[in-house]
# Entry
Amino acid sequence: MEMGKIKFRLSVMNFMEFAVWGAYLTCMGNYLGKVGMGAEISWFYAIQGIVSIFMPTIMGIVADKYVQPQLLLGLCHLVAGLAMVALFFIGENAAYPDKFHFISVYTLSVAFYMPTLALSNTTAFSILKANGLDTIKDFPPIRVLGTVGFIVAMWLVNCAAIDASGFHFTLDENSAKFQYTHLQFLVSGLLSLLLFLYCLTLPQCPIEKKSSRSWTETLGLDAFRLFKIRKMALFFIFSMLLGMSLQITNGYATPFITSFKGIPEMADTFGANNATMLVSLSQVAEALSILMIPFFLRRYGIKVVMLISMMAWVLRFGFFGIGDPSFPGVILFVLSCLVYGVAFDFFNVSGGLYVDNECPPEMRASGQGLFMLMTNGLGATIGTLSAGAIINRYCSWTADGYLIGDWQTCWFIFSGYALVVCVLFAIVFHPDKKQTSK
# Structure
């Protein structure tokens, strides 16, 4: 297949992969707060982590040994998309949905979506290598389109509304905006079903056949042998520790910014009424940061790249702690969003490339699944529940649906944690220079 066409096809795949997530990930908290599930926000994001403890690894095993990655990617999106559409219908039929029913269907959706983050990487890496392309050079520009998809979905749900005047787009205050309603789940579900169909048209990814397997290899437990290598063990452990920061702002940034609507002098500010669009600056910065990864990885190696990411998390939380939606405080919100690109990409994308380079070919999909387990699994679960406990202690929901309280203390606690992880990583992690400066 023509090289340009391959890159285009994979770029479209990444665009839809992250648009599915962007439709609800950063604005779901506002909806949950308005329908009586505000206290459970941390659990909704923790569920993503809990299913990531085992689902990406299981699907990585299947992709390594039984089902071609691009086909498995599509099948996962089929199930996830149908469950998201079901969430829309639950919200459509009840102003205050039954918590158990709603959480159960949501769990089914994310249980099949979270493995697709690793499967999409595996699919892209496999197709690129099969066509003689360089993953470190050619994958980041492809991955940028994933971030663009996330941004487009965020802007759509931020501005789209259906009310008495019909379907329209607005930047003004409107409680019917998708970012406040169950319609965000419909957008996500339809995109997921579209991606299922698209995956059926992607080039096939060959499965490497093995003549004999031990029971540990059959179950995919051989991926855990990576922990016997000191540098890999430390990398996965710190991936978990840094992963504790990943979902905090996804779950609470928009409720935090929207909460300023409860303060009369800030109620009419652009940021307070368009929190999802303001937060989308994080993804704009992410798109730009991805393009810097090849240079930084080759020039400085994985350790420096990870340290830069950790310091960016310190600033991400710190700027939220001292900013507000009015001028000039909103500048600090913008800075928080800008450093997020480095915080997320220099860890998540670079980490995926590092694992792909360090793992033997027969364990690459399992290795990606293990990376997801440590970051979006254990790390995100522990971090989100801990953050939720802290925020629920210092803040509470008002009758108007705003999460009000001592947000500054919360953000400073998160910033201090990221700083401690950064210092520890600098002291104990020492990868081989020859393997990180390719």
The longest strand covers residues 160-163. The two ends are 27 Å apart (CA to CA).
